[in-house]
Amino acid sequence: MSHPEPSQPVHLTKASSIKQSGGQTEGMIRSNAIVDKCDGICATHMLAKPHTASAVHHHGEQDTVVYAVKGRGTVVSEGGTKRVDLEPGDYALIPAFMEHQEVNDGDEDVIWTIVRSGRIPEVVNLTGWNGEPIKA
User: Fold this and answer.
1) Residue 43, SS3 per DSSP
2) From first to last of its 136 residues, what are the pLDDT tens digits of the chain?
3) Strand-pair partners of 92
4) What residues form DSSP beta bridges with 123?
């Protein structure tokens, strides 16, 4: 064999088993999908109900890839001055420590698949832009 043996078998998380869990930010419903399975990556599901916005937060040392599944949502960053709009099929990269906010200004649910560069997703909620971390 020309490569090492896999460290574990293929893992499946059925959609029906995904429940609200993990670090939360007011205004969003996050659900762990594949977490604590391998060192360098984890995946979550995010639901934003119509006319909601998350608190300002970042994800520590974790880079974040967002894939827009349903609805039209926005990532607000740079102190609230930059808006990146996502529609189904779009991807966005949120760098480590980037303060941001997820916003759903529309009339339908927004669903995103989130992949982060860590074993367990990190969420650091802040008191506002350039604010202090909120103690859990």
Assistant:
1) strand
2) 688 888 888 989 999 999 887 667 667 898 999 999 988 999 999 999 999 999 999 999 999 999 999 999 999 999 999 999 999 999 999 999 999 999 999 999 999 999 999 999 999 999 999 999 998 6
3) 66
4) none
Report how far residue 7's alpha carbon sits from residue 95's, in angstroms, rounded to the nearest whole number. Answer: 28
- How many distinct helices (H) and strands (E) make up the chain? 0, 11
- Nearest to residue 116, comparing CAs of 56, 13, 39, 53? 39
Count CA within 13 A, CB hemisphere, residue 99: 16
Radius of gyration of the chain from its Cα atoms, rounded to whole angstroms? 15
Q: Are 74 and 103 in contact (CB under 8 A)?
A: yes
Upper half-sphere CA count for residue 40 (Cβ side, 13 Å): 1
Three-state DSSP at 78 gives helix
Query: pTM of the prediction?
Result: 0.89
Do 99 and 128 meet the contact criterion of CB atoms below 8 Å apart? no
Find the distance separating the first CA and the last CA of the chain, reported in whole Å: 48
